[in-house]
Design a protein that fits this description.
Largest sheet: none
Number of helices: 5
Oligomer: single chain
Strand content: under 5%
Order of helices and strands: HHHHH
Helix content: 55-70%
Number of strands: 0
Shape: elongated
Structural class: mainly alpha
Length: 197
């Protein structure tokens, strides 16, 4: 098989797979991404300093070694947080109206708090501005919210257009529609059969 045929072979096909199968695959992928990104946030690349050293090149115990490369650490934290937040959003969305949904949300929220406190613990206070990390965490939820608003507005506009097309063009209330004169025929039965003369 060629590379293109392998790609087509593993693509999602509505005729073969059911939505439940697709949801299960997405749950597995989202859970895997959440686990990997959570681990990367709790235990950052390079580990943490084991000792405290004073001076201009000093560091504190428990702080991420990688955090002293500011730009690279920003990229790592923002990308990792974005992936973590997106996977959490997927997990919550895909388990909506499932049994124990409240428990899933509670466990997920606890995991998010643990992730955030871990990042706060290993990052030097003066190095990283946490508003960028919080913004990265909010992006998937904000995008979904904007898509929902856009979808509803589009439906309302389409519904409004369909109503306008169905009713036809409106005439001004000042102009009355005058029908052309016509002769009225009055049907009076002359005979008992009900036929006109």
């Amino acid at each position: 098989m060629t590379r293109k045929s392998w790609f087509r072979y593993f693509q999602y096909d509505e005729r073969k797979e059911t939505p439940a199968e697709a949801r299960n695959v997405l749950l597995i992928v989202a859970g895997l991404i959440a686990a990997v990104t959570f681990q990367a946030g709790v235990n950052p690349p390079g580990g943490v300093w084991q000792d405290t050293k004073e001076g201009p090149d000093g560091h504190s115990a428990g702080r991420a070694i990688y955090s002293y490369k500011t730009r690279e650490f920003y990229i790592f934290l923002i990308s990792n947080t974005l992936a973590f937040s997106t996977s959490i959003h997927l997990l919550i969305s895909l388990t909506h109206r499932f049994p124990f949904h409240f428990e899933v949300i509670l466990a997920t929220a606890s995991m998010v708090v643990t992730y955030g406190s871990s990042i706060f613990a290993v990052t030097p206070d003066d190095l990283v501005k946490f508003r960028y990390i919080l913004l990265a965490a909010a992006v998937p939820f904000a995008i979904r919210f904007m898509l929902q608003v856009y979808t509803r507005l589009t439906r309302m506009c389409c519904s409004w257009r369909a109503t306008c097309i169905h009713l036809g063009p409106r005439t001004s209330p000042r102009i009355s529609h005058v029908e052309p004169p016509y002769e009225r025929q009055i049907v009076v039965p002359d005979n008992p059969n009900g036929e006109n003369a």
